[in-house]
Design goal:
Helix content is about 35%, strand content about 15%. The protein is of the alpha/beta class.
Length: about 325
């Protein structure tokens, strides 16, 4: 039987970082948003030990006490403290525009990148994932998510359309999930329903998602889009993209009724009563805009777009609704 509907604050990179660690701004941000019935607050886009962040304002998991302070502050407000572990690669440069004019070329670069990796590189990656997970558990995080979406490194390796040896990587993800579960820690994996390149997405997309749904993780977080191809899919605003994302997410949840999924990407624009019971609600921009959103659901994001700080050449998250003296405030 499916769990009751849960609310997740899905992972995002706030940029509230000093020396690769969450600073007081980060603690204040998550503390203000971890109550009113929120099930889990996932601290987003945290680099694995020795990994590479997508921009200079990305935190890296470590044994520094700042991580324990962050996890404890979330738990003290009633939510489960979650963390999203990720990495890109040394030559990665994030796209500032929202849509690439060369999506097929971007897919080709993904092919070339992962096929240049040796087996030892993949093994080293998962040693770092295990180490990062151990550090997160020690710090008090009770939910760990692998960021395998948006064209980040793990997202390329789990997709056999891009990486021929993806089955090896999927087996390693399964081992990671079982290892976390044995330590009484929840797991999830974030994946992209689409890359944004029409030709690539036209073939094998359902088979890929079905493979992910077979993994022994607690939740599959269904996002969409690759940063280097179409960021509109990651941050849907257009009605047509919001509708497509909802339809595809619901279809996956219905096809795998025994699994638990997280629905993000304007999920709050949907009548929850119409959703499958195994589909939980992932919230991002509404909680950025209003820390008390779960208590005041008529007062959320107004699409000011200031939260896209990297695309706007800024160093940290801002919001047109909750901005004061140059920084985001908690409430």
């Amino acid at each position: 039987m499916s769990n009751p509907r849960k609310y997740f604050f899905v992972g995002l990179n706030t940029g509230f970082v000093s020396d690769k660690r969450p600073d007081q701004r980060c603690l204040d941000f998550y503390t203000a948003r971890s109550d009113h019935g929120l099930y889990c607050a996932v601290v987003g886009n945290v680099t694995i030990p020795g990994g590479v962040g997508p921009n200079p304002n990305t935190a890296e998991i470590s044994d520094h006490p700042a991580w324990s302070r962050l996890a404890n502050s979330i738990a003290a407000k009633g939510a489960l403290a979650g963390i999203q572990l990720a990495t890109v690669w040394p030559s990665y440069v994030g796209m500032k525009n929202f849509v690439s004019r060369t999506s097929a070329e971007q897919i080709g670069r993904c092919h070339n990148l992962v096929r240049s990796l040796a087996v030892e590189d993949v093994e080293s990656l998962f040693r770092a994932i295990h180490h990062g997970s151990d550090l997160a558990i020690k710090a008090g995080f009770g939910h760990i998510q692998l960021h395998a979406a948006h064209g980040y490194l793990i997202s390329l390796l789990i997709d056999r359309r891009i990486y021929p040896d993806a089955d090896i990587v999927l087996a390693a993800v399964a081992d990671w999930a079982k290892r976390c579960t044995a330590q009484a820690v929840e797991t999830s994996i974030r994946v992209s329903l689409r890359t944004g390149d029409a030709a690539f997405d036209a073939a094998g997309r359902q088979a890929f998602i079905d493979q992910i749904a077979a993994l022994p993780v607690g939740y599959v977080d269904l996002s969409s889009g690759f940063y280097a191809i179409d960021k509109r899919l990651i941050y849907p605003t257009l009605a047509s993209i919001v509708r497509q994302r909802r339809e595809e997410t619901v279809a996956v949840a219905n096809r795998h009724a025994h699994r638990e999924f997280i629905f993000s990407g304007k999920s709050t624009a949907t009548n929850e009563a119409d959703l499958p019971t195994n589909l939980h609600i992932g919230i991002c921009r509404d909680l950025i805009a209003n820390p008390n959103y779960l208590r005041d659901k008529d007062n959320g994001c107004i699409n000011s777009m200031k939260c896209h700080y990297y695309s706007r050449n800024k160093s940290h998250l801002t919001c047109g609704r909750w901005e004061k003296a140059g920084r985001l405030v908690g409430g």
